[in-house]
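Annex B, item 7. Sequence and structure tokens for protein A, then protein B.
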Amino acid sequence: MSELPNVIEDLTAESAALDRVLAGLAAPQWAEQTPAPGWTVAHQVGHLAFMFRIAGLAASDPDAFRAMTASIKGGFNQAVNAALAEYVVLSPAELLARWREERAAGIRALSAVPAGQVVPWLVRPLPPEILASAGIMETFAHGQDILDALELPRESADRLKYLVLFAVLTWDFGYQARGLTPPDVQFRYELTAPSGELWAYGPDSAEQRITGAALDFCLLVTRRRHRDDCDVTAVGPDADGWLDIAQAYRGPAGPGRRPGQFARVPA
């Protein structure tokens, strides 16, 4: 049975939580610098609007998406950064409206993909529920940058489950980003949801384990917190090494965050 209805609901909720933050900002706050060097709140929102736009294009018009990606010069990250110029010149009210319009269209297009059909994406086609899970990861990560810039608390909820699952599925991204070969081992993940529910993935018999708070795990795998500031622990040398390089996105890891850079996240 497809997980698409559930993940669409959670993607909608995570996006709506960020929208509530943005709706309450004064115009000068959109120009606040976030922990991502050179990126203001407006840059973060523009990035999310663009990602929802291309996800919606991939789901609604695969041929147009393939044509767009084939025309990209200089790599996808460069294309994303170039696209920001289209957004950051907008007024806060205009940018908020664009973010709302493009995320609504993207979510609507993903939810309309027929069962069993995949969606073209940057490296290989993906089931729409996986692409929607990636959308939760993007919204969580860039939303956290905004919250940190404005020193605002996070609204935490069990909708993070699909981010956790996405990070487990993409556990090798951290190795790929550094040109490393993933170890021939499986980890057991046991993470406590905000509600107190236990989320477990991987073989129960695995000797190497990762345990802790699901929220902190999400902050770790999006590299919005240093592992020293996260309630996440490992048993086994490979699992311990993974905590140093874990990332739930492709491409360069970036510098991440320094130990103690932020107080523990209020939720």
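Protein B:
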Amino acid sequence: MSSPSVAPHLPLVAVCQVTSTPDKQQNLQACARLVREAARLGACLAFLPEAFDFIARNPEDTLGLSEPLDGHLLGEYSQLARECGLWLSLGGFHERGPDWEQSRKIFNCHVLLDSQGSVVATYRKTHLCDVEVPGQGPMRESSSTIPGPRLETPVSTPAGKLGLAVCYDMRFPELSLALAQAGAEILTYPSAFGSVTGPAHWEVLLRARAIETQCYVVAAAQCGRHHENRMSYGHSMVVDPWGTVVAQCSEGPGICLAHINLGYLHQLRRHLPVIQHRRPDLYSNLAQPSA
């Protein structure tokens, strides 16, 4: 069932691809340029990637550059949303919690702003990326980040019901299925995928999440060299509920645009009703293997 031709009245979303650095003001200017371009082109919702605010060189700098949700930086983005009249998915904000000075750790927080600049949802990343990938170097997100305590109910936006996640979360289909069961029509995975896992897994995982949930998947990504120790893969994309990549950025900073056709989504779910066919009564009942 291929994606249908697009009618001009369908909601338009913009996916912004950036190269964040340790310089927060430079990153804000780069993101603001893309958001203003998205608004000029008629998008109702713009997506920014994980770590849109900055990518620091080490955990100590990450902690020092972080801010609370009511700090200066989110105030700037709230003003930007109001100025442009569109919703913003801020895909991974380094959030200081109330006890950050004692814990010396922060949250990786996906913040959703409406067109008035108000915070309508926050999701704190639940799956932290502690991995050692050959050729890419070790990553210990838990050295500076606290895992979030819960998933967030999908939020109604001008483009559809949006389910919030962050990067490494895409490797856990239970999360995407839970969001779809809760009513999500769009899943978003703002990310900073590396140069080894990116070519191998990025598109495959995003298309899999779209097919199994019959949701649109929107993935804004970091790209290029952030500093001497870190690079990201890029290739931000939108995948439709059939698993077709309908929009994609190249390797550098920029935006890609896609229409969200909820009529097509619901038609596909009627023709291929996998959500109704799921058997959650069985999935947790497998006997544990004997020792």
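Comment on protein B: Residues 56 and 193 are 15 Å apart (CA to CA).
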